[in-house]
Specification:
Length: 288
């Protein structure tokens, strides 16, 4: 099985004791590519995912500030994100969006920082990874207004809304990513959405260390368990887990214009503007 975990927080302290072993288990489970989300502990550490792309050829990264931390954002943080976004293995901006479930930052501030990061992601020509919880109407309205016109697309990560909202996202160029919560017995609504959407619009993720899939529920999640999400999607779509793994891997590569199978070892952090021009050539595949 060839799996792509489209969303994991591998820098988090939950992996402090066994991070290398955890990554080895992911490889052994068939994870060929992992998107390391770079939001880290917040604006005080904006390069949280960069060390992984420097060390591992199969890991790619994002940069961004999570809506939880929106209230801490200063202009200098946004400038630093734009600089980091030029790294050749930073392939997306996120996770950004709105979270009205926790409301860790005031909603107007979340919206402002969301808009600001969309503008910077557009300048960087990067797709965005959307975190949205209990805020779907506002989130999709903002995407329609500020993001759809860019044509850059992205991912609705850990999708938790209706089929109608998923279709709105797809119309704006988003892929819909399902996480471990789609495996829970009470989540039939999510499985119904996963069944109804076109296979070429689906992704799978773990959101490690959170949301461990059913067999490991309540424990720490890790990228190896993305296979469980593939199995769940396979069962609702009458496909084999291999077919779901292959299709979602293809979808991921198509969105990010990644080359066929594997990435050569990364160049160093010392990237420059010339490199940036090269790797963001308008069409064609990325070349690390
Ligand atoms: Zn999230
Ligand atoms: Zn996340």
């Amino acid at each position: 099985m060839e799996l792509i975990d489209s969303h994991a927080h591998i820098d988090f302290p939950q992996f402090a004791e066994d991070r290398e072993a955890m990554l080895d288990r992911a490889r052994a489970a068939g994870v060929t590519t992992l998107l390391a989300i770079g939001t880290g502990p917040g604006p005080e550490k904006l390069d949280s995912a960069i060390p992984f792309v420097e060390q591992y050829d199969w890991i790619v990264a994002t940069v961004g500030i999570h809506p939880h931390e929106a209230k801490e954002v200063k202009p200098a943080h946004l400038e630093e994100l734009s600089r980091l976004a030029k790294h050749p293995k930073v392939i997306a901006w996120g996770e950004i969006g709105l979270d009205y479930f926790y409301d860790h930052s005031p909603r107007e501030v979340q919206q402002k920082v969301f808009r600001e990061q969309m503008a910077l992601a557009e300048q960087a020509k990067l797709p965005i990874i959307i975190h949205c919880r209990d805020a779907w109407a506002d989130c999709l309205d903002m995407l329609e207004q500020f993001w759809k016109p860019t044509g850059l697309g992205g991912i609705l990560h850990c999708f938790s809304s209706t089929l109608e909202d998923a279709r709105r996202g797809i119309e704006m160029g988003f892929l819909i990513s399902f996480a471990g919560n789609s495996t829970y017995p009470k989540a039939q609504n999510l499985r119904d959405v996963a069944r109804a959407l076109p296979l070429e619009k689906l992704l799978i993720e773990t959101d490690s260390p959170y949301l461990a899939p059913q067999p490991f529920r309540g424990k720490r999640n890790e990228p190896a368990y993305v296979a469980e999400v593939a199995r769940t999607l396979a069962s609702v779509r009458n496909l084999s887990p291999d077919e779901v793994a292959a299709a979602t891997a293809d979808n991921f590569r198509r969105l990010f214009r990644l080359p066929g199978r594997r990435f050569p070892r990364s160049s160093s952090l010392e990237f420059d503007a010339a490199q940036e021009e090269g790797h963001r050539a308008a069409d064609g595949e990325r070349d690390f």
